[in-house]
Amino acid sequence: MENELADQLRNALHHQALPVTTETCGDVDSLRSTSPDLVFSGFTADLTNLLNAVTAPVVVVTRHPEPGEYLDAMDAGAADYCAAPFEPSHLNWILQRGRRP
Question: Can you say how many angstroms the Cα of residue 89 is from the centroid of all Cα atoms in its chain?
Answer without folding.
Answer: 16
